[in-house]
Amino acid sequence: MTTLVSPDPDLLEAFRATGRNHPYLALTLNSLCNLDCVFCKPRCMPDYGHKDRPLTAEQYAAIAREAGAWQVRKAHCSGGEPTLRADILDVVTALAEGLGDGATIGMTSHGNLRRGLSVEQFHAAGLTYLNVSLHSLDPERSATIMGGGDPAVARVTIDEALALGMQVKVNCVLQRTYLADAISVAALARDLPIAVRLIELQKIGPAEALFPQEFIDEAEVRTVLSDWLASAGEVSRADLGVRSPGRYLQPPGWAGSIGFISNSSCATCSDANRIKITPTGIARPCILHNRDIALKDYLAAGTLPEAFAHLFRSMLDRGTNPAWQGFHYVDYDLRWDRLERPQGVPVLPLLPTAPAAGASCARRAQPEELS
After folding, report:
1. Where are the beta strands (DSSP E) in the chain?
2. Beta strands across the sheet bearing 104-109
3. Average pLDDT, integer, range 127-134
4. How far apart are CA 250 and CA 236, in angstroms?
5. Of the candidates 179, 190, 200, which has an alpha carbon nearest to the alpha carbon of residue 250?
6. Poorest-confidence range of 26-35, 171-180, 268-277, 351-360?
């Protein structure tokens, strides 16, 4: 009986030869959220709450240790709202210790932390950066978009993270009705050393109903922001600690930068590098092709090396999936563990076969940076 070497040096070398960023763990920790963003609507999901038990902190620690052996150096936690997990600090600690010294551990949150939690606690647990979802600075308009929460509280969270030396990114989803709000959020980067990421609406899930009226592409927004961006210099994603697709620009004299995540108008498949893991431990090396595996089975059997070998092989094979359509970097129903996904075949259709009507990629001629 042959024992699989962990990690497989041939697989690691084959991935390095592609020139792409090394994979990282993208962990959806829960589906629960105490807000209700119009383009997300978590309570509308058929599997809301994940009654089948999510992974424990101990299981995340084991996954992180194996990932670290495969030279994975980053884990990102999202939800739902990950801070609603009672054991969230234990999960962050487990990931930081599992990946080892120098690991990058991040989290996306709406910034309205539940009582008893603080940014300082997360920092002490091993969190190195924070992404805060903020779609308007106006309390009433923010509540309309997000179904609650207070942008002033989110601002305090941002300030506290910066004071602790953490990298901070702000995620702002673009909607035509709320474009002025997005521009006000982007202006925070004038005085704060943050990256504000303007994210195109995607025609998936609850946002599908909004798409015809609310979609606005990167090219049009760049025109609106032309006074800011005309002399802006490009900021390396490596400098920002960013491994996901997107381009970041820093206007002269600004402390921070403005980035664009444009999955509806710009193809990003070639740079996708996330190993997505749902709350119950379903690992998805490709969101548009079902090569999913249940990590709980490998955890129970003590065969995580086999699981990671499968994940790396699947990522190497991404160029063979006709379902991609150039839109690989899409968070399609990550939280729905029981979404029907035929095993081993392309999942069609998830997105239009061409960019959204009227959309144009503002940077189509530019090669993706692989820093």
Report:
1. 24-28, 74-78, 104-109, 129-133, 167-173, 195-199, 233-235, 247-250, 257-261, 274-277, 282-284, 293-294
2. 233-235, 247-250, 257-261, 195-199, 167-173, 129-133, 104-109, 74-78, 24-28, 274-277, 282-284, 293-294
3. 98
4. 10
5. 190
6. 351-360
Calculate helix-pair angle for 88-99, 57-69, nearest 10 degrees. Answer: 20
42/38 Cα distance (integer angstroms): 9
Token pair belonging to 334: 């990550």
pLDDT at 102: 92
Answer yes or no: is pLDDT of 311 > 50. yes
Instruction: Estimate the crossing angle of helix 9-17 against helix 304-316, to 10 degrees.
Output: 30
pLDDT of residue 350: 41
The predicted model scores a pTM of 0.87
In a 13 Å sphere around the CA of 302, the CA atoms on its Cβ side amount to: 1
Whether the bond between 7 and the residue before it is cis, its omega within 30 degrees of 0, is: yes
Distance between CA atoms of 295 and 95, rounded to whole angstroms? 16
Cα 228 → chain centroid: 26
Per residue in 155-213, pLDDT (tens digit) is 999 999 999 999 999 999 999 999 999 999 999 999 999 999 999 998 777 888 899 99
Contact 60, 98 (CB under 8 A): yes
Give the chain's mean pLDDT: 83
- Alpha helix locations (H) across 256-357? 295-301, 304-316
Please state, in angstroms and rounded to a whole number, the distance separating the CA atoms of residues 371 and 369.
6
